[in-house]
Write a structure and sequence with these properties.
Elements (H helix, E strand, L loop, with lengths): L1 E7 L7 H17 L6 E7 L4 H10 L4 H12 L2 E9 L2 E2 L1 H9 L9 E8 L7 H12 L3 E2 L4 E4 L11 H18 L13 H7 L7
Helix pairs in contact: 1-6, 2-4
């Protein structure tokens, strides 16, 4: 079974962020569908965990509900992460959730990043904020990031929202179908002095 965790940081109800998350999850499941493929989607709404996340930042201990959400992300084969954009970056709630997640939990995990906002001017936040964060966490971020501005929900052009959703979901599904097993969190660290000693002096003939 392939498990995809979906993290939605929408604050309102109903939420365009959750709507985009659901569309991405549905598209990924469709791309993974097959006689030998069984996909389970597990959605995490950060809105209901806001107080628990804040308490965890202060105390260092997660509540049972937050612990379950963190474990869902840690154990998932893939992740879809969607945030609203505020002041040209991800929301504080979104960032705080990944701050309390173990920083090795996403190592080698395929991740699809997406965001919503009122204007297309904020679309680059996916590239200058979200992608670097997940790269730092050593996740494998799919090439296509999906941004949905208010006007995108009714777009009918060839490269509209539906097309971007399908393309990104297909990239995530491809990684999940052919991805090797996730690497263990532990890495063997070679002391810097030892690495220097192994270098041979450069000489010219």
């Amino acid at each position: 079974m392939t498990v995809i965790a979906v993290v939605s940081a929408g604050l309102s109800q109903p939420s365009s962020t959750r709507l985009l998350a659901d569309r991405l999850a549905e598209a990924a499941g469709r791309h993974l569908a097959g006689p030998a493929e069984n996909t389970e989607i597990r959605v995490i709404e950060l809105r209901g965990l806001a107080v628990d996340i804040a308490n965890n930042l202060v105390t260092g201990f997660p509540s049972p509900a937050l612990k379950e959400a963190l474990e869902t992300v840690e154990r998932a084969d893939g992740l879809i992460a969607v945030t609203p954009i505020f002041t040209a970056s991800y929301s504080g709630l979104f960032k705080s959730f990944f701050d309390v997640l173990d920083n090795t939990a996403l190592q080698g995990t395929p991740v699809l990043i997406a965001a919503t906002g009122g204007t297309a001017r904020h679309s680059l936040a996916l590239e200058h904020a979200l992608r670097p964060m997940f790269t730092y966490l050593r996740a494998v971020v799919v090439p296509t990031a999906v941004y949905a501005a208010s006007e995108d929900w009714g777009a009918t052009s060839g490269d509209g929202l539906a097309s971007r959703v399908d393309r990104a979901a297909g990239e995530l599904a491809a990684l999940l179908s052919g991805a090797p097993a996730k690497r263990p969190a532990e890495e063997k660290l070679i002391p810097f002095e030892q690495q220097l000693a192994a270098l041979r002096p450069f000489t010219t003939g």
